[in-house]
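Researcher: I'd like a structural prediction for the single chain below. Treat it as a standalone chain; there are no partners to consider.
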Amino acid sequence: MSATTHINELVDGFILAGGDSTRFGSDKSRYKVDGQPMILRIYNLLMKICGRVEAVVKGETDYGDLGITTIYDAYSVKAPINGIATALGHSSTEWSFIVACDLPELDLATLLRLWEHRAGAGVIPSVLGQLQPLIGLYNCNYEQMFKDAITFEQLKLHDIIHAIDFEILEFGDPDPFKNLNYRP
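Model: Treating it as a single chain, here is the predicted structure.
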């Protein structure tokens, strides 16, 4: 049994795909990198270590044509915390990887390093002192804290991460964390 097979039983994966892609100019989740939609690249990566992977979206978006189960934002706020709280509420495991859909260079080594350091509320990477909360390992036991933050309109992820018991893990290589906000 490989290490990743063992992890599959312990962690769910969620892809945040609820943004408007306004800077990109079209639905960036379906933008192809090396012939594959970005969301499908992230899905396939997460499936290597997660027992279940779903996309968290708003509105009428659906990824059934790509074989990806879609769940819908549970809250009406227009912020990434919406997708995170929704994901934590749908998780069937203690831990969940929650990853944005627009990270074409994210790799398995990065996710495994987060897994190895899991503790407290979760593990959030930092690159050159900049938090990267849209690539994280979240402890689902903290779901209520995210719901409360939405209720009290405390929507900044950085504030929540600093207020809760998150492990901040420094990475030297920024490449896996580069998101694609503008069309190349």
